[in-house]
Amino acid sequence: MELEAAVRTRRSEHRLLDPAPSDEEFTDLLGWAATAPDHGHLRPWRWILVRGESRAALGASFASGATDAETVRRETRKPLRAPLLATLVFVPRRSHRVPHWEQLAASGAMVNSLMLLLHDRGFGSIWRTGSSVDSVGTRTLLGLAPHEGLIGWLYVGTPDPTRRSVPRSPVPVADRVSRLAPPPCPASAGPGDGRAVTTSTR
Ligand SMILES: Cc1cc2nc3c(=O)[nH]c(=O)nc-3n(C[C@H](O)[C@H](O)[C@H](O)COP(=O)(O)O)c2cc1C
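Above: inputs. Below: predicted complex with flavin mononucleotide.
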């Protein structure tokens, strides 16, 4: 699949079936996804793969704070929505010259590449977060260190073949793009207010 076609046709897949990529295939694709822009090449993240029966333990941790039966039932079942839940752990390098927000941005870039690579191989995925990212029970189950952040799960599997695929149009973004006007030449320059002038690109 060409890159543009992959970008055009990728969707967050809500219904994911077997098969999911093997640990080896996931790791191979991740190796390429990790080439996404990353200031300092810190790769400030790690993944914990959750499959099969382990999903039930994860679901129990999701439900651990719930007080009513309906929420317990719903939370417990959440990890069963895909055959593979790839847990994304943010591992920021503290006191590094590359600030925290850049490390988080690099992690997002990696995930986007990984989702496109999975799509290219015929797999579907969706990045899910929710209140469980702050759950002490979930953090404990996954063995997170205090400085590590849980930034969600990539639910991965095979897209439901019966899902209706509605072609997408590009997002209208013209009003979000402007151009910095060149500075006025010194002879004609008025006092101005010191602010840069931007103009639409349209
Ligand atoms: C950081 C992040 C967290 C997300 N968390 C959730 C979530 O908790 N539940 C959910 O249904 N989708 C979640 N999504 C997926 C978005 O909802 C999805 O990308 C959006 O609906 C657009 O769909 P698309 O990817 O098909 O364009 C998350 C996406 C990102 C980037």
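The chain has one domain: 11-161.
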